[in-house]
Specification:
This protein is of the alpha+beta class and 223 residues long. The chain contains 3 helices and 6 strands, in the order αααββββββ.
């Protein structure tokens, strides 16, 4: 007689294999591996952009601007220009993130910008390069010119405020130059709500008004 395996023995082997596969998946964590891979690519892209911007400035004495007639920064944030030579010869193929989205670029608001920031959001929120408290922000990683910090809010103060009828009502900072000026309800024009949807340049948790402490004739915002 030929001796075979019983159904119980086969089921035991299958169970052992299944347990081993679960342990392997938990150990390897393929999702985390994919996230680390895409994050590494984004970090590399931003590093290349930073070098290209610095080389551009060496040649032109200014970083790329967003002024007429070229509106270069807007073009660099246009999905249609991903992988093109829009920024050649400083960068022959303009990079976008692994999801096909352009990177966020911010520059000083004049015809000859002297600072820049390039921002993105890493998939792995536990990445050691994400500053504390920015894990869930719209942009949690970036690079910048050496004279600014990419995560600096450029003078916007993150304090609480609001009282009376305006308490709890989303208000905003109107972006002005390098800082944040007048606080207003309704947020008309280029403004900044007290949530994560507004530009990282001027994000604020602050609601309420403030006095003119710097003597420029405009309310300072929240103090």
């Amino acid at each position: 007689m030929r001796k075979g395996f019983s159904l119980v023995e086969i089921m035991i082997v299958i169970a052992i294999l299944a347990i081993m596969m679960v342990i392997m998946v938990m150990t390897i964590n393929p999702i985390a591996m994919i996230q680390r891979g895409t994050d590494a690519r984004m970090k590399k892209d931003l590093s290349r952009i930073r070098v290209a911007f610095e080389e551009y400035r060496n040649d032109k004495k200014t970083f790329p601007n967003n002024s007429a007639p070229d509106f270069l920064v807007n073009k660099l944030m246009d999905r249609a220009n991903c992988g093109t030579g829009i920024f050649a010869p400083w960068l022959n193929s303009w990079p976008c993130d692994p999801h096909g989205n352009p990177y966020k670029i911010m520059v000083e608001e004049n015809s000859f910008p002297q600072w820049f920031k390039v921002l993105t959001k890493l998939d792995n929120k536990k990445d050691a390069d994400i500053p504390a408290g920015r894990e869930d922000k719209t942009y949690n990683y970036g690079v910048s010119s050496t004279n600014v910090l990419w995560y600096d809010l450029a003078g916007c103060k993150r304090t609480l405020g609001g009282s009376g009828d305006q308490e709890g009502v989303p208000q905003c900072y109107i972006k002005r130059g390098l800082g944040c000026g007048h606080v207003a309800v309704g947020c008309l024009g280029e403004s900044c709500y007290a949530d994560d949807a507004c530009s990282p340049f001027c994000q604020t948790d602050c609601c309420g008004g403030g006095g003119d402490n710097n003597g420029d004739g405009e309310p300072d915002g929240c103090n």
